[in-house]
Design a protein that fits this description.
- There is one protein chain.
- The chain has 293 residues and is α+β, with helices and mostly antiparallel strands.
- Among the domains are: 38-47 and 191-291, Efflux pump adaptor protein, beta barrel domain (Elongation Factor Tu (Ef-tu), domain 3), CATH 2.40.30.170; 82-155, Helix Hairpins.
- The protein contains 4 helices and 16 strands.
- The longest helix has 36 residues, at 82-117.
- It is elongated, with a radius of gyration of 36 Å.
- The chain starts with a helix and ends with a strand.
- 14% of the residues are buried.
């Protein structure tokens, strides 16, 4: 009888212990999921160089294709240079004419200065010669600037890669008329990849610049490591806006369903991981970010 009671008691004790363990495990999982220093809301990001034309003209050379890898200084596009070569020739001719006039004006100025010393001409005639020479000097300076601008525009007919990276979103073709300031393509800087994690505001006590993190890509590829570089200092207040008569329009909310705001945290990838993985990384892809310290 006693043995049976002990057996029943042991059975209840085991049940109670298992129950407590289950509750403890559930609490730890809940605590880690809601309050732990990690987020599944992470993204791989990269710096984009928007390549635009600085002059207007017809596209005559397209040396890249979409998604091509390029190196810094590589020729990407060429705009027809004929118009700009003609502008240089015109500017050089105008400059030559002005220099010839300057020589004549200088000779006249020197002659009138000698005559003025001999009291053979009036001061007014001397001043006219001096003003004419100064005017030509200024016109030559202007012509030199115009010539330099024409040469600069000719150099701008050839567009080069600003960094090592990848061409993306290329939708132009040879023969297109390119306008000055028109965006032509996007160049992904392959050495500028980083990660951004959107952490709930309740997890900000875990966030500190310099802390180490693990980055787990959603595609299952090898994890990476990084360091917290900084975090956003302001986000949009979605609960308020300006209504009629410049009065603030505050949206009603319900405390029992209030959601924590998300704060962007920027993570710098470790150099070894960046060097090893930069050919595989895709900006905009998802990742999990776990704070290790």
């Amino acid at each position: 009888m006693i043995a049976m009671k002990i057996k029943i008691l042991n059975k209840y004790m085991i049940t109670v212990v298992i129950g407590f363990l289950a509750l403890f495990l559930a609490y730890e999982l809940w605590n880690y999921y809601l309050l732990g220093p990690w987020t599944r809301d992470g993204r791989i990001r990269v710096e984009i160089i928007q390549t635009s034309a600085q002059i207007t003209g017809r596209l005559v050379g397209l040396n890249v294709v979409d998604n091509q890898e390029v190196t810094k200084g590589e020729l990407l596009l060429e705009i027809e240079p004929d118009d700009y070569e003609i502008k240089i020739a015109i500017a050089e001719a105008q400059l030559g004419q002005l220099k010839a006039q300057q020589i004549l004006a200088q000779t006249q100025f020197e002659r009138r200065r000698q005559l003025l010393n001999q009291s053979s001409i009036s001061t007014e005639d001397f001043d006219i010669a001096k003003a004419s020479l100064e005017n030509l000097d200024n016109r030559i300076k202007e012509a030199l600037a115009g010539l330099e601008k024409a040469r600069l525009d000719l150099r701008r007919t050839r567009i080069y890669a600003e960094a090592d990276g990848y061409i993306t979103n290329l939708h132009i073709r040879e023969g297109n008329i390119i306008q000055a300031g028109q965006p032509l393509l996007a160049l992904v800087d392959r050495d500028s990849y980083y990660a951004v994690g959107y952490f709930e505001e309740t997890k900000m006590p875990f966030i500190a610049i310099g802390k180490k993190v693990e980055i787990l890509p959603y595609d299952g590829s090898e994890k990476m490591t990084g360091t917290i570089e900084g975090f956003g200092r302001a986000i949009v207040d979605q609960s308020a806006s300006t209504g009629s008569q410049l009065v603030q329009n505050v949206q009603p909310n319900y405390p029992w369903v209030t959601l924590a705001q998300r704060i962007p945290v920027r993570v710098t990838l470790d150099k070894d991981d960046l060097r090893k993985r930069r050919h595989d990384l895709i900006a905009g892809s998802t990742c999990t970010i776990v704070i290790k310290d």
